[in-house]
Amino acid sequence: MNAPREHVLPPHTWQLLCDFLYSSSSRLSVVEAADQAIKAWIAAQKKGEEPLRGYQWKQLFLPEGTQVRMEYLQRCYFAQVSGDQLMFGQRAVTPRGMTLAIAGDGRNAWRDLWIRMPGERQWCNAGLLRSRQSAHGNPAAKPPQTAAEALSSAAKAMGQALTAAVTLIEHIDHQSTTVLERRLPKYRRETDLLEDVH
User: Could you name the domain of life of the organism this protein comes from (predicted)?
Assistant: First the structure.
């Protein structure tokens, strides 16, 4: 005995698809369009199960398809992450290796390389990306977890602020004393003193 057949699509979705096919003047039938949509959805789900590939640059992960750019002597050089490698021309390089190949020694890859992640329109400096990631993922950048740690941090900050204030007060006191001493009679020349005229 066969189980009763259920409709693949709810009636309102079926009607939505019919209306779209009609308004777009598509030559597909509703069944053909639904078949293509389901196959595309299954393929997208399978693709999502594949492990993410890319290049790990110290603490910065560059997913596959990421573009890397360096400008040197008014010329731009490009590399791209392909699989698990950074490809510059026909060879796999490290970011440091890319800067060495372009400009020789004395360059800082974090400062000189610009990154454009897949799907992004803007380029971002590699060092800036690293600091953003560190701010979001570095445990040292997170707020304290316990009340005792919070109090300890606050006490340390207050101690630093008080030390700075004492230093500033000592500086101001020294300046005012020096100015006052300059005005005392023993430091004045006799020619600077004016006689009282009655």
Answer: Bacteria
Distance of alpha carbon 6 from alpha carbon 22, whole angstroms: 25
Q: Are residues 72 and 133 in the same domain?
A: yes
Sign of CA dihedral 98, 100, 104, 108: positive
Distance in angstroms (rounded) separating the CA atoms of residues 68 and 64: 11
d(C-alpha 100, C-alpha 105), whole Å: 6
Q: What 3-state DSSP class applies to 198? A: coil
Whether residue 60 sits in one domain with residue 79: yes
> 90 is in which domain, residue-wise?
54-139
Could you read off the pLDDT of 90-109 as tens digits, one per residue?
A: 999 999 999 999 999 888 99
**Number of domains into which the chain is organized:** 2
101 and 157, same domain (yes or no): no
